[in-house]
Amino acid sequence: MERDDVEHLDRLARRVDAPGPIVVLDPLARNLLAGDQAAGLGAAAGKWAVTAPQIILYGGPYGAHVPNSVSVETIAASGHSDLVWRHPGFHGIPVVPGQRYTWWTPGLVAAGAPMLPARVAWYDAAKAYLAVSAASQAGIPAVVTAPANAAYVRPYAGFTATGMYVLGESVFALGDVSAALTAGERPAGEGCPTYSITGYTHAASAGDGRYRDVALDLVEVVNSADG
């Protein structure tokens, strides 16, 4: 790794700026949602957020592999009631400014749910709202770019009419994977869990010293505080 990257990791490992935890975004991950969340299965607690009594989720509490159904009871004064996909440990899914992402809910689209175009809300490191990005039309994936100062994103579905729909599959992925999704790909959720660094070493690589060999020991943090 080059020196700037090593210095960034060094600050994280030594908890210079904050106590942690941290998240590792695997550049090869095809779906950053958790497995059950991406499949629309199991208990809703910690995976989705709604404003009661606008939306009620049914089914999931009866078993880890039971599909969730979304009951849209009322529509907010804004003209839509929102179902938000949560991150288990942070204010939203951690993002990098300037990075492109793809968001879609093919399960709800297939169920015929009346929704706004797929959209996401961006937040900075202090959890302050920044902006919303959306697809150009309803029913297609949203390919969005994280704005300057973005640290978190909250993808969501904005329902525009009442009714009940099977939640089904959803995808939040690095890069533009819209063509693969509309062609039928449904990548399983791999997640982006929170970790604590329990071991850390770095040493100069052979050569001119600009590079370092870095080793990190990571332990997944369960039920971490909202970061």
Walk me through this protein's architecture.
With 227 residues, the chain is mostly beta strands. The chain has 4 helices and 15 strands. It has helices at residues 3-13, 35-39, 106-110, 178-182, and strands at residues 22-23, 48-49, 55-58, 69-72, 81-85, 93-94, 100-104, 119-123, 129-134, 142-145, 152-159, 163-166, 171-174, 194-204, 212-220. Strands 2, 5, 6, 8, 9 and 11 form a 6-stranded antiparallel beta sheet that branches. Strand 8 and strand 9 form a beta hairpin. The longest helix has 11 residues, at 3-13. It is elongated and about 65 Å long. The model has no long low-confidence stretch (mean pLDDT 90).
Write the layout of secondary structure elements.
Blueprint: H1 3-13, E1 22-23, H2 35-39, E2 48-49, E3 55-58, E4 69-72, E5 81-85, E6 93-94, E7 100-104, H3 106-110, E8 119-123, E9 129-134, E10 142-145, E11 152-159, E12 163-166, E13 171-174, H4 178-182, E14 194-204, E15 212-220
Antiparallel strand pairs: 1-14, 2-5, 3-4, 4-12, 5-11, 6-11, 7-10, 7-13, 8-9, 8-11, 14-15
The backbone outline, from C-alpha atoms, is elongated
Q: Return the average pLDDT rounded to an integer.
A: 90
Distance between the termini: 27 Å
What would you call the structural class?
mainly beta
Number of strands: 15
Q: Can you summarize the main beta sheet?
A: 6 strands, antiparallel
SSE string = HEHEEEEEEHEEEEEEHEE
Q: What Rg is obtained from the alpha carbons, in whole angstroms?
A: 19 Å
DSSP helical segment count = 4
Uncertain segments of ≥5 residues (pLDDT<50)? none
**Percent helix among the residues?**
10-25%
Strand content: 25-35%
